[in-house]
Amino acid sequence: MEPHRLTREQARRIIVRAQLLEADRPGDVVEVAEQLGAIKIDPTAVLAPSEQTIPWTRIGWGYEPGQLTKAVEDDRQLFEYAGSFYPASVLPLMRVRMRSRPLRESAAAWLEANAAFRADVIARLHRDGPLLAADIPDTAAVPAGNESGWYSDNQVPRMLDLLERLGEVAVVGRVGRLRRWDVAERARGPEPDGPDADEAGALLDERRLQGAGLARQRSSWSGVGMAGEPALVDGSSWKWRVDPRALAGIDDDPGGRVAILSPYDGMLFDRPRLIEAFDFTYKLEQFVPKAQRVYGYFAHPILCGDRFIGLLDAALDKAKENLVVSAVHELVPWESEERDAVDAEIHDLAGWLGVPVRGLD
């Protein structure tokens, strides 16, 4: 088919709308996960963990952190997998992908060398689960390397992470930041009849495009493959894929708003798309030496309508119980209305955190 032709403004509007960042706000965290496809989990809590700030950025005052726990642990409308929360509607497709997921040669060799350890972990969860990793004995015969530094000498968390990716165990809840594990068949029920791996992959590509709205064709950053329909964007040489449902409402414009985004927000993941569509280059300076930082350790991008206009360098001071604003960086000159809207959003953020603002002029 002939590609759809989009202006840059239309392209940005499609992306912003797909990410639920326009004036119309979603009603709850399940609606957010259904549209975005996934909510990233990360313990870095300069303001709040990403799995809490991502829903708040969309929902606003109607969101409370306990809603996420309820949706995951009580209502089972969301589930945790590999560092993100997903809507239950994609679980059958993802279970197909888990069964067919290839492992790196080193990981496969480590599992083979620790076959008895693997069986021990599964048996312990069958008998006593759900359990924390600390409740499961480490009976590994061969330790794995730890070049990344993510793991301790205890091999149980590594085994659980690998078995989760293969669909044999599942996270069923948390105690603080610690995950509670169980065998997958008890946590998620029997394996459903469903599509084959290729069909499941194509359907998951469509769900990812739903959350992206518009993405580069076959980009490793977006993972949408050939889902949707072809599109061209004015001034861009890329071959794009667009969600046809996004095109249907392209002329319905409820208006924009200010949104303060977690550095781990899915809106920011596709860095090349940020540059191509929004002319915005974002670098998280969390791992940059302090003397070389430009915008701050964990600066939050500020979206105004369909433009990135600044970055917020702020942190929650738990001891003094306030939100400390170190800087609000303007990437472009702001109009007075934009400044007022950003200030209001920062005060709303502080109110959601339950603290006053300090340092905002």
UniProtKB/TrEMBL annotation:
In terms of superkingdom, the source organism counts as Bacteria
Cited PANTHER family: CYTOPLASMIC PROTEIN
* The name this protein goes by in its record: Winged helix-turn-helix domain-containing protein
